[in-house]
UniProtKB/TrEMBL annotation:
Keywords: ATP-binding, Nucleotide-binding, Transport. Belongs to the ABC transporter superfamily. Residues 1-44 are annotated as: Disordered. SUPFAM superfamilies: P-loop containing nucleoside triphosphate hydrolases (SSF52540). This is ATP-binding cassette domain-containing protein. SMART domains: AAA. Pfam families: ABC_tran, oligo_HPY.
Length: 378
């Protein structure tokens, strides 16, 4: 089996904060995509937008059960509970790039990924694929979009049918949609397995006969089998050992080059996202708080929440951690704080943060941040 190259060594970082003078607030909306050079990867990305997330929100409601309805009839002040999982998020994803989406558990990043993949319907807002509203697509256009946007799940064991052989799991979708002729199906599945670093002879095995890293590769193979353009990777390496994580991340890099793929890479681990992403979007309690080029965002985080995440990235460097760690627990999305959602845990919070929602605005070239501190003089 071919040995995958190790992840590149981390470069020493200059820690500091990008300051900008007061700027006029602008509404959070998807911005046009100029030509963009990924400094870390050394390649120029396409200015074309393959996916546009336009002011998307998702709310989940929990109706009252029988006991609660009875209590309300007796005078209890009870109402259905509404969870604001995603709150007015706008993003553009350029063709061929890796956009990392990072945040704590419960921040809404996986819900946003599921909406992009078409597994969950937005409560409001639009998701445009190649300029067309996915929700309004019908017939062949809807089918094509469903095939072109695939999702790789966090736990491959729970998403793989334990009663099916891997060759049937990988070949099921292309066979159903007529992507590959029946007489070529066996060789096609073998090619896909080989592309993800699995021996084609393993196609006769069942999911429980694979290791965690191998099952992750099976999940990737299943997504690739329908020839997608866009992959939503939801915590795809979270359950793996560090050494296996490196192998799978290198596989993602290779597949991106081989198949010209675009990734939305969802993870709670900023250290993992750092290695693979061209740009990074940071979410907190349903809202987008910072967006920027990966290397610059890691070196000079602007938002206090991003600074806290960066300070927790493991490093051999000493004397470089200058940011405050996050204190306390993430608030409940059923009862989020007013104003800036992060203000109860922010070491720099002031009165304005408690009452006014900060706008996501440009604070430096190719950098957006939602923090009132940017409106103060340096």
């Amino acid at each position: 089996m071919q040995v995958r190259p190790p992840l590149p060594a981390r470069r020493p970082r200059l820690r500091g904060r990008a300051h900008a003078g007061p700027r006029r607030p602008r509404p959070q909306r998807a911005l046009p995509s100029p030509p963009f050079r990924s400094r870390r990867k050394g390649r120029v990305l396409s200015p074309d937008t393959i996916l546009q997330i336009d002011s998307v929100s998702k709310r989940f409601s929990k109706d009252l059960d029988l006991a609660e309805r009875t209590a309300r009839k007796l005078g209890a002040k009870l109402a259905p509970v509404t969870v604001h999982a995603v709150d007015t998020v706008s993003l553009n994803v350029r063709r061929g790039e890796v956009l990392g989406l990072v945040g704590e558990s419960g921040c809404g990043k996986s819900t946003l990924g599921r909406m992009v993949a078409g597994l969950t319907t937005p409560t409001q807002g639009r998701i445009l694929y190649n300029g067309q509203d996915v929700a309004k697509m019908k017939g062949a256009a809807a089918r094509d979009a469903a095939l072109k946007i695939q999702m790789i799940f966090q736990d491959p064991m729970s998403s793989l049918n334990p009663r099916m052989q891997v060759r049937d799991i990988v070949g099921e979708a292309p066979r159903f949609h007529g992507i590959v002729p029946r007489d070529r199906m066996a060789s096609y599945v073998e090619e896909i397995l080989d592309q993800v670093g699995l021996d084609p002879s393993m196609g006769k095995r069942y999911p429980h006969q694979f290791s965690g890293g191998q099952r992750a590769r099976v999940g990737i193979a299943r997504a690739l089998a329908v020839r997608p353009d866009f992959l939503v990777c939801d915590e795809s390496v979270a359950a793996l050992d560090v050494s296996i994580q490196a192998q799978v991340l290198n596989l993602f890099v290779k597949l991106r080059q081989d198949f010209d793929l675009t990734y939305l890479f969802v993870s709670h681990d900023l250290g993992v996202v750092e290695h693979i992403s061209d740009r990074i979007a940071v979410m907190y309690l349903g809202r987008l708080v910072e967006l920027g080029e990966a290397e610059d965002l890691i070196a000079r985080p602007n938002h206090p929440y991003t600074q806290a995440l960066v300070s927790e990235i493991p490093t051999f460097e000493t004397g470089k951690k200058t940011y405050h760690a996050i204190e306390g627990e993430i608030p409940s999305p059923m009862n989020p704080p007013t104003g800036c959602h992060f203000h109860p845990r922010c070491p720099h919070a002031h009165d304005r943060c408690r009452v006014e929602v900060p706008a996501l605005k440009e604070v430096a070239p190719d950098r957006l941040s939602a923090c009132h501190l940017n409106d103060r003089a340096p």
